[in-house]
Amino acid sequence: CVCVCVCVCVCVCVVDVLACRLSGCLITAEGCSSLASALRSNPTHLKELDLSFNHPGDDGTKQLSAVLEDPELSLEVLRLDHCGKERLKSGVKKYHCELSVDTNTVHRSIQVSNNRVMRAVAEDQPYPDHPERFEDCPQLLCSNSLTGRCYWEVEWTGFVYISVAYKKIWRHGSSPQCRFGENQQSWSLLCSDRGYSVLHDNKSVDLLTFSSTDPRRVAVYVNYPAGTVTFYRFTTNTLVHLYTFKTTFTEPLFPGFGFGSWSWFSPDSSVHLCSTAGEASV
């Protein structure tokens, strides 16, 4: 892949394209060294080089940064966001991100432990008043503002909604404008012992029944530039596609979780954020 990516970049340089985007191409320090050499030996009009979601390492970063700082070269923007060894994984797993719960949004019937485990409980939690807190719907949002690509995995029990939503989703009352999946502001996967279904704009699609032998673990992949939200389930060590929403996003997305239905509460339902992407393959 490194050789392919280097050739792509050289081709871009030859035709004087202003931007070269190689995000998520499994590029290592060796590949970055080749890129730096190519840019120095073939000065071009290239102004932007995007190498996010790769693994340049310290050496690769140093060499490319030197190219960026060289006044004799035209490069003005070098993107090395979300880089690291884990970005060498295949498929969507390279886009794994750590989610962080926005405690100002958590409904009082949800208990949060160590920013990783969320559980519906019968006793209200002593959260302070906040205008962004969900008042009646047992839901919460994470603080991650998504405008790129992001992948995460969760383990679940009970009756839960795995969602993404615009920040402007309603927080007061229990109308459809507040509930995940029942408005134009959110996209959701419903997980329960009865099976999986997806919801958006108050329209639902039943997917399949849940097998007691399957892991209670699902994954979400957001590709914001492409306008997609994809849900997966796990079977043993394999990711299986469940459903993909396709749209055009108009503002940042925020991961969210809901517990039970708007008409009934589901105590002991829970979501556990997995700290690292598993070894499942797509």
The main pleated sheet reads as: 7 strands, antiparallel
- CATH homologous superfamily (4th level) name of the largest domain: SPRY domain
Please report the first level of CATH classification, the CATH class of the largest domain: Mainly Beta
What's the SSE pattern? Answer: HEHEHEEEEEEEEEEEEEE
Q: Write down the overall mean pLDDT.
A: 86
pLDDT below 50 for ≥5 consecutive residues: which ranges? 1-15, 277-282
Number of helices: 3
The total beta strand count reads 16
Pfam families: PRY, SPRY
Signal peptide: 1-19
InterPro entries: B30.2/SPRY, B30.2/SPRY_sf, Butyrophylin_SPRY, ConA-like_dom_sf, E3_ubiq-ligase_TRIM/RNF, PRY, SPRY_dom
GO molecular function, one term: zinc ion binding
